[in-house]
Specification:
Number of helices: 8
Helix content: 25-40%
Strand order of the largest sheet: 11-12-8-10-9-16
Radius of gyration: 19 Å
Structural class: alpha+beta
Number of strands: 16
Distance between the termini: 23 Å
């Protein structure tokens, strides 16, 4: 049951907590295949998106007995992440005023084996044409290595581009590969692209954010609503839609997504049918970029330490 369904979570749009829950119930058949068995991080807004929200990973108490969770080690103790394995769990999260579910790139019980490589395009300034060119450049660079990629709107400022990975993939080499792709893209277009995380160092360029490929990193789940005016959705789209300019990062909204999926279905439904071999991808990339051009990224990865491992959970 949704408590206080009339509470306005998007006051400027008249969208209530009940409306949010109804959306997630409608979208569940399309969303659950992408989020099930992935540890959940909740972006919660108890007072609505116009007030400060917070991020919650740990659900150690105050949860229903039926909710599936997984205990994951951290540097000091453990975190009990909830799992969105069914519609009931998705509605439970909505009832916690979780506007945006964030998930990682691996699934229980194989949390040390990521099945996605994620590229997050983060513009410093609004420039639809530049963002479009960069998204297509990421697609084409991956295609040079024989890798097929999938794209979704971020529901915020950019696009998320993903490549499915096979079961041999591990986090540290995956992060190195992603950073190498980013370094190659910056090398080819240094006036438009950067890997500088600080906005003050970007000088108007688009960040190729490859940090989503660490063990503890997350990204907005497919079909997740974002905490922005208009309730935009981070929705799968086609490369043809990006190439034509028909869609942008905030094109899809909570109110029109059910009609869209009824029309086009889940555009990511075949995402994991042909996973990528990371070993072959690294070999191909090594022919396009020099080892020293990966050096900075490798150093950063070493400073982050080894990925943590999951503990026994339920």
């Amino acid at each position: 049951m949704i408590t206080h369904p009339d509470k306005l979570l998007f006051p400027g749009d008249g969208i209530s907590k009940g409306d949010l829950a109804h959306y997630y119930e409608q979208i569940a058949p399309f969303m659950l295949p992408h989020v099930s068995h992935r540890p959940l991080t909740m972006e919660r807004y108890p007072a609505g998106i116009e007030k400060k929200g917070f991020i919650q990973k740990d659900v150690s108490k105050g949860y229903p007995e039926w909710l599936e969770r997984i205990e994951v080690e951290k540097r000091e103790g453990t975190v009990w992440h909830p799992l969105l394995n069914d519609t009931r769990a998705l509605l439970w999260a909505a009832n916690q005023n979780c506007v945006t579910p964030h998930v990682g790139s691996s699934r229980v019980p194989h949390l040390s084996q990521p099945d996605l490589c994620v590229f997050d395009l983060d513009p410093s300034v609004p420039d639809a044409a530049a963002l479009q060119r960069v998204a297509l450049a990421v697609r084409d660079t991956l295609a040079e290595l024989g890798l097929r990629s999938w794209v979704k709107t971020s529901g915020s400022k950019g696009f998320h581009i993903v490549v499915p990975m096979d079961s041999e993939t591990r986090f540290e080499p995956l992060a190195l590969f992603a950073h190498g792709i980013g370094a190659l893209l910056v090398k080819r277009d240094p006036t438009r692209l950067t890997q500088e995380f600080l906005k003050s160092d970007r000088h108007g360029r688009i960040l190729i954010d490859t940090g989503r490929n660490a063990f503890s990193a997350t990204y907005a789940a497919p079909y997740a609503v974002r905490a922005r005016p208009g309730a935009p959705v981070s929705a799968p789209c086609t490369w043809q839609e990006v190439e034509s300019g028909a869609i942008g990062p905030e094109s899809f909204k909570l109110e029109d997504m059910p009609a869209r999926v009824a029309r086009v279905g889940d555009l990511w439904q075949d995402l994991h049918l042909q996973p990528t071999s990371l070993e072959r991808a690294l070999q191909g990339l090594s022919r396009l970029i020099q080892p020293e051009e990966w050096q900075l990224g490798a150093g950063r990865l070493r400073r982050k330490g080894k990925p943590r491992k999951p503990s026994e959970g339920r």
